[in-house]
Amino acid sequence: MWLETWEMEKEDQRKLYLAISEAASGNGQEDQSYRYLLKALRTTQDGDDASSEEAKTLSIRALTSAFNDPVLYNFSDLTNLDSVQALRKSDATWFELLEIFSTETLDDYADFQESNSDFVSSHNLNEAILERKMRLLTLTSLAASASSTRQLPYGQIAKALRVPSEDVEMWVIDVIRAGLVEGKLSQSSQQFLIHRATYRVFGENQWREVASRLDLWKDSLTNVLRVIREQKESFVRDKEQELREAEQAASGKGYRPGRNMRNAAPAAVEVE
After folding, report:
1. Are 126 and 68 a contacting pair, CB within 8 Å?
2. Among 143, 132, 58, residue whose Cα is nearest residue 101
3. Minimal CA–CA distance to 146: which of 195, 213, 74?
4. CATH classification (class only), 128-216
5. Would you tell me which of 1, 50, 182, 194 could form a disulfide with 82, CB atoms 3.0–4.6 Å apart?
6. Span 251-256, average pLDDT
7. Where in the chain are the domains?
8. Smallest Cα–Cα separation from 68: which of 38, 118, 34?
């Protein structure tokens, strides 16, 4: 990278990234602004820098940007940073909110709001965006947890999302548009039929599920190969039978005496 070629110090890199981030934000390019804000934040991850006041300020700024982004649903870039992890001690409420958006559900977010009633409004967080994102993330978790049945009843969705039953289809369509879940609605059975769901976190339980699915696919492929092999063998047998019948039919076109006639002695001929 050209910054490395120039051998810029971490502090100078940080200033440059922050300047780009602010310029992008000023032009309404929030995704680019967030991207360079993360780059700036990553320059604070070495040693004691991760616990510095500047790292803390940038971490909270990045969290605010991520929470307020209506199309950002993956927070792993933040949770993997040492400076963000350091918020567990210095600013536990921020870290609690991050954990809720990373792994928890709408019920947990509601409990957070009840315990920290003015936190969202007093920290420039968009409550409408946060609530909508939590509903979509909650539905994503529901879909992922239904991997065995591959279906979710409308009633279960309505309860988890705290919405009327008539609004369920709208939320399902929204979660599909967000790219978090793939599936289709069955109005006749009042079920959401799931094809694929995104895991918000990927840990030991998810690895077990992947292993289980691979075993199922392996068994299915083994059965398919067995059927193909049996069909191939049957095809070969049929072709061999056809060839034998064709040879027999071809040999019977001309006269050929039977075996008893071919082995009989020549008949005597009387000549006068």
Report:
1. yes
2. 132
3. 195
4. mainly alpha
5. 50
6. 57
7. 1-103, 128-216
8. 34
